[in-house]
Amino acid sequence: MVLIETHNLWKTYEMGAEKVHALRGASINIEKGEYVAIMGPSGSGKSTLMNLIGCLDTPTQGEYLLNGKKVNQMNDDELANIRNREVGFVFQTFNLLPRATALHNVELPLIYNGSPAGERKEKAELALHKVELGDRMYHKPSELSGGQRQRVALARALVNDPSLILADEPTGNLDSKTSIDIMKLFEQLHRQGNTIIVVTHEESIARSAQRVLSILDGEIASDERASGESAGTN
Amino acid sequence: MVAPSLVRLALGALLAHRLRSGLTLLGIVVGFTSVMTIISALEGMMGAIEGRLERLGPATFIVVRIGGFITSYEQWMEMSKRKAFHAETAELIEAGCDLCERVSTAASTGAKVKYGNTAMRDVEIRGATFNYIDIIDAEVAQGRFHSHEDDLSRRRVAFIGDLVRETLFEGLDPLGKSIRIGGAKYTVIGVGEKEGSIMGQSQDNWVIIPFPAYVKEFGFNGKEMYFFVQAESVEQLDDAMDQVRVVLRSDRHVPPDQSDDFSLLTADNLLAALNALTRLFRLGLVGISSISVVVGGIVVMNIMMVSVTERTREIGIRKAVGARQRHILLQFLFEALITTSSGGLVGIVFGYVIARSLVGMIDMEISPSAFAIVVGLSISTGIGIIFGIYPAMKAARLDPIKALSYE
User: Fold this and answer.
1) B323 vs A54, A57, A112: nearest CB
2) Strand B100-115 relative to strand B226-231: parallel, antiparallel, unpaired?
3) Does residue B66 lie in a domain region?
4) What is the ipTM of this complex?
5) pLDDT tens for residues B139-183?
6) Residue A95: which of B5, B317, B327 has the nearest Cβ?
7) Between the N and C ends of chain B, which has fewer C-beta atoms within 10 Å?
8) Which of residues B204, B236, B261 is at a domain's end?
9) What is the CATH number that goes with domain A2-25+34-225?
10) In angstroms, rounded to a whole number, what is the distance separating the alpha carbons of residues A83 and B200?
């Protein structure tokens, strides 16, 4: 079953009089349950693609279907709703609320879909247990290590049971040992049936994915399956 | 429902920055304290004057040559040409007005009052006929008021106010003592109940003597005379006033096409005149003090702008996990509203307490009016919305991608 389907996505920024094309007609298909890495050097357009896939932004041109829903024509509120229910973000800089406990950080997405307080707490606790942070629920980010913070972020991404987990350089701020732990966690989540997209420029991180999409100058340059066989760019 | 959670988030954010929230709150508190102090003090003042006027009684009116609501110099000039009253006016009123229960003739002036070596300057000397005490709702604290016989025999007796008693007879029994008013000696026969003061002005600085004695002392002046008239009942007040009008117009030969050349004052129309006269002044005071509330609102807006900038990343995170524009808008608006309405509430309490202590020094009764509290609370809420909406909208409209990468 297809989860993500984009046709000829363009994203153009106006820099004064000049037009900068961050994406030049990217078309991709991602099935439910896939573990995909998007690779590319900085400035290649991979962050732009991630923002579009994560519904933080809309394309200048082209069509994007997420779970069969046409996202490219949605308004701000509808996009917020999609981000809330369909997408779980994991960022390089964790992006946790510094003054809130791990539990409150994980509860955050549930606040905005109006879940009652009791249900929120229950789900957030469950998500924290999944990332093995059951004993750190009432710690603030400043009281947690980098790896633990990223686990909190992962729990937050999972809490609403999204269709897609979208990670942007999730190990960029972590040491190599912690990075391995986090990537193991991603693999585990993948095995449990989650769809995962990791944006990275590190070969070692991309290797844990089944499929690697390379992007260069705003276009999909290659699309390789872990087995080595090429899937093509259609 | 998302809103209750947003209120909790707003409260949490305010508590997380206690010093900043406290200072913002202070700005609002100061503003509302000043407004409420002034409103409460004005209300207390008007209440005291009203209370005083009510002593005239609901069935009583005063006949004066010049009085009422004078709005122009021309009107004043026209009034000052009015004829004087003659000595038999009270008898004429009594004879011609069967709805009038009592009529008392009165006049007043200022004079020095002495007892032994103690003297008081500028005491109000009121000459009034015996039934004055029955018309005006005044209490006798000690002794008695003068009688009809005292009037008829022009006896020199005095009924004194509490301030006069206190000043001249401190610790002594004033009854039977002899005081000097102008050139003559008067025997003190009674003391009035203490009335306190309005705006620092004592209401007990007077001596009442029989009207005939007053005339003997200060001469007869029909231009300064006035009459207290009590109708049989409140219901008959208007009819009684009409009867008096008929009597006076014919006595004073007022042509039918001309208006009265005298004025009839009731507690109600005096109060209305007072309200009308002081309205602009009161509005002005409230208006000036309201500036501080607006300043408080600007403080809130300023702090909110700083807060939105500082929390750009937080806003980005909230948007990334699915907060809609209105969720962000409401959270920040709630922060402003909580600040202004709690500040407003504290300010109302402070203002009331300060007004009370101010007014306490000058013997005024003051009570918190529900109206002032409701108005104060709605204004503080309004200030929160007016000055909170712009920063909140700014926060709500932030681009999530830019907000997330904000350093």
Assistant:
1) A112
2) antiparallel
3) no
4) 0.93
5) 899 999 999 999 999 999 999 999 999 999 988 999 999 999 988
6) B317
7) C
8) B261
9) 3.40.50.300
10) 69
